[in-house]
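thought: user wants a sequence for this fold. calling inverse folding tool.
action: design(structure=
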């Protein structure tokens, strides 16, 4: 029997999920990572029920839930601390078939790597797609520092600046700057508890969420020119922008070292690609549909992509038909989410007094009318189910009790 060979370019969450899913379905997988090591870049990640169900397909859902903190009751606040909207985590879990959970990004990366043979991932291996191949004929060709690799399937999971995307769709303009930048931190225990929250100010926001080990995952966003950086350090910049916001924001900032603050401009692809595949190559995650983080779905959608891709490209089957089915299934969903995240981003970036007052008043009114109206924002997102049988890890469908 001929072995079907897949090359995954990029070892982020989407790339490793794809590698694990493809390996599980019988592909011989090689992951190429240009970085010299697999030290994960990032702080924390929130996984909604949709991506947890996707991870169940490869037997990782229960492991994720055992490591993660269930995002508790919280809501939306103003910088002074006034609550605009409250959320009910039990109601959300009941509506979407499970809770939103939070864990360290490094923990998720480690779990995904545990599903792969040790020799699968090659670090320090910048790669270039030389030939996308033809699904019904010639193989794809990927150039690496140690020689060219022929592959039956190439998966471009190489992020916002994807070289695979450029090779497949050279006329597409790619991601554009969204108008705002983000910061992310992991803060050591504060010695006291607090309630999860997201706080919206004038053209800025802050979120603080406790993790299971007592640390805090926090993120911030603010309108800023593209490529801007603090004159001193990014911790000082956070203190200038958020140091007078409500508790625990100043305490979280104070608990981190300057070198631990990650800052990245946000780029998104509001103009969709013609397809998420071409020839023998497929794109997933930010390479295919970079989106603003305002829905918290970027990593979740990369996981969905990976599981759906592996479902459609069975070794030995018609690859062209499988890749076409993958694009047809994923493109409408991810395009809609990119645009929805962009609309929410524009609301966050409001800075004028009348506009901010109107926005905050609208959010407070919707919350008073009932939590179901707030949760309805995620209908069709968090309730998504994979094409494969969910809960392959043995988890009870619709679990809404805390682990």
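)
observation: tool returned 403 residues.
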């Amino acid at each position: 029997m001929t072995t079907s060979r897949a090359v995954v370019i990029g070892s982020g969450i989407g790339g490793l999920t794809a590698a694990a899913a493809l390996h599980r379905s019988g592909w011989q997988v090689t992951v190429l990572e240009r970085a010299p090591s697999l030290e994960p870049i990032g702080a924390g990640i929130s996984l909604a029920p949709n991506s947890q169900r996707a991870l169940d397909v490869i037997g990782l859902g229960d492991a994720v839930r055992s490591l993660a903190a269930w995002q508790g009751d919280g809501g939306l606040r103003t910088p002074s601390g006034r609550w605009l909207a409250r959320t009910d985590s039990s109601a959300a879990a009941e509506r979407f078939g499970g809770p939103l959970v939070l864990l360290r990004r490094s923990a998720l990366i480690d779990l995904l790597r545990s599903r792969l043979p040790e020799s699968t991932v090659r670090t320090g291996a910048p790669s270039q797609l030389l030939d996308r191949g033809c699904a019904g004929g010639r193989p794809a060709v990927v150039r690496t520092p140690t020689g060219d690799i022929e592959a039956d399937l190439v998966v471009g999971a190489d992020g916002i600046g994807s070289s695979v995307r450029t090779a497949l769709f050279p006329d597409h303009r790619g991601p554009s700057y969204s108008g705002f930048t983000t910061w992310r931190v992991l803060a050591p225990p504060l010695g006291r508890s607090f309630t999860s929250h997201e706080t919206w100010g004038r053209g800025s926001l802050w979120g603080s969420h406790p993790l299971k080990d007592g640390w805090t995952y926090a993120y911030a966003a603010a309108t800023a020119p593209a490529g801007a950086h603090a004159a001193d350090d990014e911790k000082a910049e956070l203190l200038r922008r958020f140091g007078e916001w409500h508790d625990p924001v100043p305490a979280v900032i104070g608990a981190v070292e300057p070198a631990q603050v990650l800052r990245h401009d946000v780029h998104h692809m509001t103009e969709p690609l013609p397809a998420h595949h071409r020839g023998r190559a497929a794109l997933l995650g930010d390479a295919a549909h970079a989106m603003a983080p305002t829905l918290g779905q970027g990593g979740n959608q990369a996981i969905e992509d990976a599981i759906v891709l592996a479902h459609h490209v069975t070794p030995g089957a018609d690859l062209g038909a499988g890749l076409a089915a993958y694009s047809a299934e994923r493109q409408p969903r991810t395009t809609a989410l990119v645009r929805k995240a962009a609309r929410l981003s524009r609301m966050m970036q409001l800075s004028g007094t009348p506009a901010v007052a109107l926005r905050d008043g609208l959010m407070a009114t919707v919350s008073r009318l009932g939590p179901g109206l707030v949760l309805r924002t995620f209908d069709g997102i968090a309730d998504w189910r994979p094409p494969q049988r969910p809960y392959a890890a043995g988890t009870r469908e619709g679990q809404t009790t805390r682990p």
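thought: summarizing for user.
answer: Here is the designed sequence. The chain is about 35% helix and 25% strand.
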